[in-house]
Known about the structure:
This protein is mainly alpha-helical. It folds into two domains: 1-71, no CATH class; 77-127, no CATH class. 22% of the residues lie in helices and 6% in strands.
Amino acid sequence: MADLPRVNLHALVPTYDESDPEGYRAGMARFGPAIGASQMGASLYELPPGQSICPYHYEYPEEEWLVVRRVFDAPAAYDELREWLAGQWRSDQGARTPEASRIFDELGLVAGARRQLLESESFRVLLAGADVELPLPQAA
Length: 140
């Protein structure tokens, strides 16, 4: 089987149409032709807070899918905390910090489980900048 065309969604740069009315100002990057789509539209939309892509509509005869790439703009500390927690998860259970253990317990994590960090109240407190000292790795 031949390799299918691929597109890196993270590399796409949506463009905005300045004539879009308030409430419907979304960025869009069409990539259907790049993957050889002929009976399906393929576009990436970027939705700023409070905006939508368009009013209710239907597609005929093309199919339309929705894939959510990112739901929110994370605070700057999100990625750093996530990486720190990944390191804590890989360490022996007895070597984990109390903060990391509490987050893992709140999420009910077991090997192979996938949960959203924002489901943990303790993680949200850390992310909000609560006065908690973490042994985060320092950049060299």
